[in-house]
Write a structure and sequence with these properties.
This protein is 47% helix and 20% strand. The chain has 16 helices and 14 strands. α3 crosses α5, α7 packs across α10 and α8 packs across α9. The protein is globular. The structure holds NADP nicotinamide-adenine-dinucleotide phosphate. The site of NADP nicotinamide-adenine-dinucleotide phosphate has 34 residues, from α1, α4, α8 and α14.
């Protein structure tokens, strides 16, 4: 097969896709930079040509495919080593592309955080991906790279320092600044809508091990911050972190895919630090109330209509370039071994989490697949299948993220 392109960005016209294209344009192919032969794809030729103009790359190849057109998607896959997709909500539009990648043995990564859809894709296509050699890497943005790679980083350091992995890790969002785009809101609204209509799905969403292989044997009861909670490890009040619902599932899948190195009783949870004393408690209460209101609003038809029409960003809308640049996040991890030894680490990212930073993370996942893990290199060691970022890339991705994506991983000394 003539794989003319290292990477094709499918959905280059999306809010996050456009930021990704600018990042690829700035990061690759100039003198002294890595070389990547890439192209853009989507359903609208005129919008794709606008993207080419905006990033000032008149020679960039434009390819056309609708997300529902299996034959056009297959043709796309036949030309690429890696497809990066930003066409979401993935639960609505994503399956035909995953199917085409799996059929043609093409590597794939995306930004989905829709755990119920990942479960469907793994159940349906994992055997075929293993047979064809397609490596599928979901959740390659803010959800869930900082969590998945953050846990991996902490565990490598715990093993080095204590000769043992931690069987209990907490991640706390110490600070974050950023916004949401229309596509992200549409994905959140869609998952709420699906869950309201389907009790079996609600049960699935509550299962921390939903995307672990059935024989992984995990039974430990996981802690879930769903109300204001005092955390003695950080001496602060915590509130629910909305991404925990996907990040924790990815971390448990990583443990399962790696052969359960952290133990069958491994515990992991995420929450936001909101402050100390009375003020912290009040803030945590307000976050819980705000999230509850959003969920109730998104679940009921009339309020959902009102929110979508008048309050929430529309498809194609999102944080301003200034907000993308000045956003950041600071995530703190504490890990404890079975014998009581403790390690603290942090992951700090520059740029709005969901867009400025996410586009860099996704671009580097694509590059890692296309450049580091392809023919003649590690391809044989990392066979086809549904991977997580830590299990397929490990240290290679940490290196890339620190060098090219403004992410820092650090062990904290007391
Ligand atoms: N994990 C993370 O950290 C993270 C961060 C940001 C975003 N996301 C996810 O990324 C996705 C994109 O978000 P966004 O806000 O950038 O989305 P958006 O601006 O609403 O863009 C949606 C994209 O899908 C394309 N599309 C829709 N239907 C299509 C079809 N039938 N055929 C081909 N293309 C089609 C649109 O093409 P047109 O331009 O032609 O309409 C557009 O490129 C969402 O699922 C969001 O949840 C995740």
């Amino acid at each position: 097969m003539d794989k003319s392109f290292d990477i094709i960005v499918f959905g280059a016209t999306s809010f996050v896709g456009q930021i990704l294209c600018q990042y690829l344009q700035d990061t690759f192919n100039s003198e002294g930079q890595e070389q990547i032969n890439w192209a853009i794809a989507g359903r609208s030729e005129s919008k794709l040509n606008d993207v080419k103009k905006t990033i000032n790359n008149p020679g960039l190849k434009v390819l056309l495919a609708d997300a529902s057109d299996e034959s056009a998607l297959t043709t796309l896959c036949e030309q690429a080593k890696v497809i990066i997709s930003t066409v979401g909500p993935y639960a609505l539009y994503g399956e035909p592309l995953v199917k085409a990648c799996v059929k043609t043995g093409t590597d794939y990564c995306d930004l989905t955080g829709e755990v119920q859809w990942i479960k469907r894709m793994v159940d349906k296509y994992e055997d075929q991906a293993k047979a064809s050699g397609a490596r599928i890497v979901h959740c390659s943005g803010f959800d869930s790279i900082p969590s998945d790679m953050g846990v991996y980083f902490l565990q490598q350091n715990a093993m080095q320092e204590f000769g043992a992995y931690c069987n209990n890790i907490k991640m706390r969002v110490k600070a974050a600044k950023g916004g949401a785009s229309g596509g992200t809101i549409a994905s959140m609204v869609n998952i709420t809508k699906e869950a309201v209509a389907d009790p079996a799905l609600r049960k699935q969403l509550a299962n921390p091990y939903l995307i672990c292989p059935a024989d992984s044997g995990f039974k430990a009861r996981q802690f879930n911050t769903n109300k204001p909670t005092m955390d003695p490890d950080f001496n602060a009040w915590t509130a629910p972190f909305v991404m925990a619902a996907i990040n924790t599932r990815i971390v448990f899948r990583s443990n399962a895919l790696a052969g359960n190195p952290y133990g069958a009783d491994f515990k992991y949870d995420e929450a936001m630090l909101v402050g100390r004393d009375f003020k912290g408690r009040m803030m945590a209460t307000m976050v819980v109330a705000g999230l509850g209101l959003f969920l109730v609003g998104a679940a009921m038809k009339p309020t959902r209509w009102f929110l979508e029409k008048f309050v929430l960003p529309k498809p194609g809308e999102g944080p301003s370039p200034h907000a993308q640049k000045t956003g950041y996040y600071d995530l703190r991890f504490v890990g404890k071994t079975a014998s009581g030894k403790e390690i603290r680490t942090k992951v700090v990212g520059q740029g709005d989490p969901g867009y400025g930073s996410t586009s860099r993370l996704l671009g580097q996942v694509g590059a890692c697949l296309a450049l580091d893990l392809h023919e003649g290199q590690d391809k044989t060691g990392k066979q086809g299948g549904f991977w997580t970022t830590s299990t397929i890339f490990g240290d290679k991705l940490i290196e890339r993220l620190q060098k090219h994506a403004q992410l820092e991983f650090e062990v904290l000394k007391d």
